[in-house]
Amino acid sequence: MSFFTMQLLVRLITSAAGSCAFALIFKTHRRHLFRIGLAGLITYFIYHTVMYLGGGFFVASFASTVFAAAFGEMCARLFRAPALIYNLTALIPIVPGGEAYYTMRYLLERDMPRANEKLLATIGVALGIAGGIVLVSLVVGVIGDRVARKQGGNHGGKH
Question: How far from the centroid of its chain's Cα atoms is residue 100's Cα?
């Protein structure tokens, strides 16, 4: 199986378009759309690359989420926008909607082996996304606290 295929190209383009579409649904200002599309594209590319290398659902979603969350935090500071508009929309391409759908389908068909397989994939992606967000949030929080202390500010602490 080749790494770069026409199917991957289509998925990268639709990842960018899907991220932008969700940004528009959330009424994000149009000046952010290019970066949001780029974030969605790269997020999916990282996910695909890790899966191709045999990393599994959790590792692929964790790695791609770390990128998306870090990119969102960086863009929030550089372009004075909420990190959430970048983080949330960049993760759209890896949300396990298809896996959740097939989990329910196989449960309804009473095909338990396939239902369990899809359920584990869904849980793996969900945990990877959650873990990536938590990791980046913790790192950004620790760095923010250190910068605030160096500047002599009181970053949310009590006197």
Answer: 17
